[in-house]
Amino acid sequence: MPTKKAFLLFLFSIFFSFTATGQAERGFAYLKQNEPEKAEQAFRNSLAHPTDGVAARFGMAWCYLQQDHSFRQLCEGLAFLRESRRRFPALDANTKARYQPYGLSPAAYPDMEKALQAAALHRVNNSRSVAQLDSLLQLMSPFPEDLEKEVQNTRRAVVQHAAHYAEDYASIRSLAENHYGLVIQANYRYPSQLEEKLLNSFVKENGLYALSEFKESHPGHPFSRDCWVDQFISAINSKALRPLLHFLSDYPHSTLDVLADVVLRAKTGNGANIPQAHLLTAAEKQQLESCKAGWKLQAALESKEPFGPALQQELLSHIQKSAPASRTYFLMKKALQAYLDNRQWEPATALVKFSQPLFPDVRPKGCGARFSYFVEKQLWFRVAIPIIERAADGIYRMPLAALNTPEGSEYSPAVSADGSELYFAATGREGQVGGEDIFLSRYDFRNKSWGPPQLAESLSTAADEVPLSMTSDGNHLLLFRNGQLHLAALGREGWEKPQPLPDNINAFPWLGRATLSSDGQVIIFAAIKDLQKVYSESDIDLYFSRKGPSGQWAPPQPLGPDVNTFEQERSPFLFHDNETLYFSSNGHKGLGGMDVFYSKRLDDSWQYWSVPQNLGKEVNTLDDDWGFQYSMSPAGNTVYLSAENLYSNLGDLFFTGLPKHATPAPIAVYRGRLMNPSGEGLQSPLLVTDLESGEVIEEVMPRPDGSVSILARGGKKLSVYPKDQSLFPVSRIIDPSTTTPGTVDTIHTVPIALMLEEGVSAPLNNILFDFDKAVLKPRSIPELLRVYELVKDERWLIRIEGHTDNVGAAAYNQKLSEQRAAAVLQFLAGQGISPSRMSAEGFGDTQPLASNADEAGRAKNRRVVIRFERK
Q1: Residue spans of alpha helices (H) in 710-809
Q2: Measured between alpha carbons, how far is 558 from 552 in angstroms, rounded to an integer?
Q3: Distance (Å, whole) CA 450 – CA 453
Q4: Domains along the chain?
Q5: pLDDT-based confidence at residue 285 (cuts at 50, 70, 90)
Q6: Which residues contact 324 (CB under 8 A, 6 or more apart)?
Q7: pLDDT 10s digits, 117-170
């Protein structure tokens, strides 16, 4: 795309070849002399001319492009240009020829139009103004194909900024009416509060007395659909208190009951100023006193101090007197959340059990509104009471203080399987390059602390990036980029450019969070198939896709009816066992509108799951808990999450635990580094086998630097060795019971060519004997069979050497080492290797690899090695 500067230089070059005559020509002459104000006036004087007006409009557009004009003037300039272009074909040949020296030709219009659009786009990008964005899309469309991507990126950035920061009614209304799909695509924490922000911003700018106008403008808004909205508007528009008091007593089931209570509290100064109180009837005074009692309890709750026995009893008394009013129901829930926050379990249980019979499900007579509030209160009690009664597990949420900043927002943690790296998204932090960037912190296992976060430069651009999930080998990172799912691969120089997932995944009208299986072969993500309009809840389901043998992702399928409901499921996190799924849902009922659940995969179809279980009162709240974004260590004992404040847009990272019933079986993580003989990291595939059976469980690819993480599931002991047939299959035993977090083992590879040419030996690490014995244990068989497969078709000479530690007499150790080497030879001979090709020798304790002063050193010295020689 030509830049504005380049385009202007092109037009200026034309001017040196003409002589100015006439009014429009004078305008071009003024431009040549760098007098844009005079040029603009000259062009304006020619706008009405039937033929010169075409050139004048072209010149006006040029004036606006040449100077640093406002966004509005750039839009006006484009309008001039398009009108000039529309009229140009009607000009006669002489007029076209007269203006051709000034650059007026069919070929000039597209480039100038693009330059005006690009300049306006730059203004919108800098201003982050929703109003300018709307004008851009309305007045400057269509855009050329090579500019369309930048337009969409700018739109996404402006909408995201407004979703977090806009407080004016016009911007919020535009988000709801013009950009709703993009709002929920790029700001999955925002939509559930859109209705509230829209009403609040309107009232803030226009006052309560203008709510009739709001009702007319937004007939689908819950406020407008309330069956008693007209009575409410009439009551608040009255200067007297009586209409409000009557509304509160006459319409207890109205969802506007809560708002009426707020208005009454404001009008009376929290009950301190009651005009003409002596004129109120006894019933009106009783209603007022009931409201004042509720305000007192609300103030006590806002203080965050735990309720003592007296206030607890006062709360129950107030609920009994004022139920089933909507305001009382929501006060009860607010008090319940305070009890849960303060870990007052017994008062919480007493409160819900006391309140249950006082709030029956009622569909008010003559009311056609289908609010779930009317008919789902008793369902909520039936579900919530067992959750609240369940014994607590002592879970506390603690901030990751080393990673959080007071001025920035940190969220969406993604921790590596070995626990050494934590990626997260952030806005508002120093050193950022885009709106949402990715940061990385590394864990210091010695000091048990996270290091200072650094910008992940290869993953962060001027676009918006959010990390989501990592494969267990650390070679792939799933992330959001501008609302679409991308996958980044780790290269030798760091993360390579993230590649978008195919359209069969990214083409959904809305995509939420996603998670990878530990091997990266399955992705689970939240998506909307049919996007509803604002004020209508879209059905969000969880989908999965498998990666095929060719590396292509299969068409996504729903996760199945055990997990998905007709409402919303989102924020999936798949534990490293590839079986335990954590997700948020409001279709499976719980404490709040959206609770966190877990479910277990039952088969390999990925469509059958166990009945989802609620994570309980120490994790979930009475609000929507879909803002939590989880990542979990394989040990299952540390959960990393983020919790965000919708209105301040400031989130923080935390760590916590899980309830016992929701904690998966722990998985041990082996950390190693594959090295070549020169001591450099080697990226070569490793085969992981069951130590008992020798069955191959998986193939693992180390990172480019040779580092590798291997998960030992189910407590099984594993063996790992190089797959490359040019390397001797030197193995390592992974014992979950002795794996220490943070410890990195070194796997030295031994090229077979080096063994043949230089006589280098290779250790047989999985050759096991009972104490003081020379009889091979069954676990030794898989390793010896690999040796057999390696040598059976070769003509190499094979030498087997046995070594011991220094425990016991030297003569005894010498004999034991000889017997153990002979046992290996006999096994290979039994498989068909000619004894004439093999020899065995023992060295006792004469060639130690390490000190015999401790058990770790002695274990290294007890070994059997093998050598090859060309025949």
Answers
A1: 752-758, 781-791
A2: 18
A3: 8
A4: 4-186 (no CATH), 240-368+370-389 (no CATH), 406-662 (2.115.10.20), 667-749 (2.60.40.10), 754-871 (3.30.1330.60)
A5: very high
A6: 252, 253, 358, 359, 360, 362
A7: 999 999 998 899 999 999 999 999 999 988 988 898 889 888 888 887 889 999
